[in-house]
């Protein structure tokens, strides 16, 4: 069942990126903070419904929720900006590498088992990143703003997964819904205030946010819940690299077929190595 959930997580990750990309394409007056706030609110609704009304909030949960809300809000907004200012395929690739942060946390602090195939998979991922950035053509130039956004996404996204793991380990798999409800409530309020403070027609801004952000938020809630469920019984060294590599492959296919992004032969080899890494990370 864990591997079925893992497949669903990877698939949801792809659809999240598609909805973010579509918002950037369709929105006439884009408001990233408002878009992210709508998504977070809908994710919050998922966890409220999933709790069935049976929730409690121990004090010990607050530090984890506070840390996660900061990381999640940063990762969500920065990812949208990165997709807006750079290619979807490479943005997804580097974002996927951020899951190496919780992987090494699991190895160093939780003593997750290490298999030889893990090393092969990780090396394949690193070579893939190198090839993606080598001999890139004019259409794949990276702007300074994209570099800043992708670095923020990388760090914040990796910390999200790490904090989720820490919370689940500390509470022995409990308080999944409560943890996410507090975190998402904080993010929603902060980003909503920032979004509404932007000058312009609020109705014009809100309409595409609801259209694309609501679905994105709902499936994000499902994905985060499944990550916490699976992380309670699957080593980080298997879970997060698998999510990373699987996301690379599916987003690569989507970027080439739907958004017609063009990669050089060297970059394509890099993505093929991403596929190879999926195999080794799951042996």
Can you characterise this structure?
- Helix 1 (2-26) runs parallel beside helix 10 (236-257) and helix 5 runs parallel beside helix 7.
- The model has no long low-confidence stretch (mean pLDDT 85).
- This protein is mainly alpha-helical.
- The protein has helices spanning 2-26, 32-51, 61-85, 88-97, 100-109, 116-132, 144-170, 176-196, 202-231, 236-257, 265-281.
- 79% of the residues lie in helices and 0% in strands.
- 51% of the residues are buried.
**What is the approximate shape?**
globular
Taking Cα atoms only, what radius of gyration do you get, to the nearest Å?
Answer: 18 Å
Helical content, roughly?
over 70%
Q: How far from one another are the termini?
A: 17 Å
The structural class is: mainly alpha
Oligomer: single chain
Number of strands: 0
Give the number of helices: 11
Largest pleated sheet: none
How would you concisely characterize the structure shown here?
This protein is mainly α. It contains 11 helices and no strands. α1 packs parallel to α10, α2 packs across α9 and α6 runs parallel beside α10.
Protein topology:
Blueprint: H1 2-26, H2 32-51, H3 61-85, H4 88-97, H5 100-109, H6 116-132, H7 144-170, H8 176-196, H9 202-231, H10 236-257, H11 265-281
Key descriptive features of the protein:
single chain; 283 residues; mainly alpha; 11 helices; 79% helix
């Amino acid at each position: 069942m864990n591997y079925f959930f893992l497949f669903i997580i990877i698939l949801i990750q792809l659809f999240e990126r598609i909805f973010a990309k579509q918002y950037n394409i369709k929105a006439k007056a884009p408001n990233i903070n408002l878009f992210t706030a709508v998504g977070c609110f809908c994710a919050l609704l998922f966890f409220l419904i999933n709790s069935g009304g049976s929730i409690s909030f121990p004090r010990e949960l607050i530090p984890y929720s506070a840390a996660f809300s900061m990381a999640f809000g940063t990762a969500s907004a920065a990812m949208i900006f990165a997709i807006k200012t750079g290619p979807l395929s490479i943005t997804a690739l580097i974002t996927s590498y951020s899951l190496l942060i919780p992987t090494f946390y699991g190895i160093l602090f939780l003593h997750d088992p290490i298999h030889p195939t893990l090393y092969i998979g990780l090396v394949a991922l690193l070579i893939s990143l190198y090839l993606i950035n080598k001999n890139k053509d004019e259409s794949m130039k990276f702007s300074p703003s994209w570099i800043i956004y992708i670095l923020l996404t990388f760090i914040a996204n990796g910390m999200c997964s790490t904090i989720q793991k820490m919370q689940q380990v500390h509470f022995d798999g409990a308080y999944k819904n409560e943890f996410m409800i507090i975190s998402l409530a904080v993010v929603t309020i902060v980003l909503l205030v920032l979004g509404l403070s932007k000058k312009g027609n609020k109705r014009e801004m809100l309409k595409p946010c609801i259209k694309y952000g609501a679905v994105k938020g709902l499936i994000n809630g499902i994905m985060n819940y499944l990550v916490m469920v699976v992380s309670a019984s699957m080593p980080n060294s298997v879970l997060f690299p698998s999510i990373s590599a699987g996301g690379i492959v599916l987003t690569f296919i989507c970027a080439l077929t739907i958004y017609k992004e063009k990669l050089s032969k060297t970059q394509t080899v890099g993505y093929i190595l991403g596929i190879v890494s999926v195999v080794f990370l799951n042996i």
